[in-house]
Amino acid sequence: MYNYLLRIKYNGENYHGIAYQKNVRTISGEILNYFDIKEFRLSIVSRTDKGVNAEENYIVISSDKNIDFSNFQNNDIKILNVYKLKEFINIRKFSRGKLYEYKLPKKLFGKKYTPKYLINNEKIIIKSEEKEFDINKYIEASKYFIGIKSFHNFAKGKVKDPVCHITKFEIIEDKDFYINYIEGNRFLYEMVRRIITFLVSVGYNLFPLDLIEKVFIYNLEPKPFPADPKYLTLKKVYLDWKELYKYIEDVIEI
Predict the structure, then answer these.
(1) Which fold has domain 110-227?
(2) ω before 162 within 30° of 0 (cis)?
């Protein structure tokens, strides 16, 4: 078997995520189909959702074919680097962190998230009155997300381990967007997009700043819905290259 590590970038707007699915267009599926790879094993460092973009992501493909990836042509997907591996590996084990960018349009969303309750041993009713959007409240609320916390309220469904370590949360304003940079050791399914929706609700005064610490302990009812995926980009994946190079046989020019 031939084993390859691919560093790729893509516009995910027209795809159902990166993970391979038989009957829909996916990022990994486009690569496999292009080279007519029928029998394979696949490992992906970051399983980006439907519609999400990436400036950097990594996949491992194991196949009985010796593939020349320099021939690959696709308007949405670019193969940046190819490494020949000594054996198939689970690339996620080498991930040490990720950086995401979310470009929040200043026009914001037509539909707003309105939290109603915080539930633990007690039930706290969220009493709030919508006001004009305040970016300063949004920024202040974002600071609460830095650190090691449980993000159970910001994942789709229940997760076994909701604890993540967010190391950076920065917001930069330009003409049309509030650009969010979120860096952490790991991210749950739809986590970044649900955080953005929640922060927008804080900006609209629909959730008070003094209760934010409780969202990492209590259960939010309802949970924030995920924001539009087309504004989300995986910017950087931090790999343990010192350990990874033990499995790299060759760097292939493309």
Answers:
(1) Alpha-Beta Plaits (3.30.70)
(2) no
Burial of 55 (0-12, 13-18, 19+ CB in 10 A): middle
* The residue to which tokens 């604890």 are assigned: 163
What are the tens digits of pLDDT across the range 137-169? Answer: 999 999 999 999 999 999 998 999 999 999 999
DSSP secondary structure letter of residue 104: E
DSSP 107: T
DSSP structure string for 114-137: ---EEESSSEEE------S--HHH
36, 49, 161, 174: the catalytic one is 49
Residues contacting 75, CB < 8 A, separation 6+: none
Q: Among this protein's residues, is 49 annotated catalytic?
A: yes
Q: So what's the pLDDT on residue 241?
A: 98
Same fold, 2-96+239-252 and 110-227: yes
CA distance 187 to 99: 10
Q: What is the CATH number of domain 2-96+239-252?
A: 3.30.70.580
Q: Are strands 232-239 and 53-63 parallel, antiparallel or unpaired?
A: parallel
| Cβ-contact 244, 64 below 8 angstroms | no
Q: Does residue 205 come out as left (phi exceeding 0), alpha (psi in the -120 to 50 range) or beta?
A: left
